[in-house]
Amino acid sequence: MAKWVAGIDSPDRITKMVSRAWSVATSGRPGPVVLVLPEDTLSGSALSTNIKPFSALETYPSSADLQHMANLLE
User: Fold this and answer.
1) Which of 4, 10, 17, 20 is 20 to 30 A away from residue 27, measured at CA?
2) Domain residues for 17?
3) How far apart are CA 58 and CA 27, in angstroms?
4) Which residues contact 15 (CB under 8 A, 6 or more apart)?
5) What is the 3-state secondary structure (H, E, C) of the chain?
6) How far is CA 55 from each of CA 22, 23, 47, 52, 59, rounded to the nearest angstrom?
């Protein structure tokens, strides 16, 4: 069982796909992801692209959000 499964078909896409896999694995309910790396992809060469640093998103309500919801329900 995995949250996301993808295959990398070109060495040029490795950076982007790893970034997306990390984002999917840690967003919402954390879980495993699978990246398929064919042997010809691993032996190829590619130019690396810069990606934005990873920042985790909060996926649960803060205490202020819970208080606001309680006020709405009253």
Assistant:
1) 10
2) 4-49+57-73
3) 8
4) 48, 49, 51
5) CCCEEEECCCHHHHHHHHHHHHHHHHCCCCCCEEEECCHHHHHCCCCCCCCCCCCCCCCCCCHHHHHHHHHHHC
6) 10, 9, 24, 9, 12
What would the two tokens of residue 74 be? 């009253």
Per-residue pLDDT tens digits of the chain, which is 74 residues long: 999 999 988 888 888 888 899 989 988 888 999 999 888 777 777 777 777 777 766 667 888 999 999 999 99
Number of domains in the chain: 1
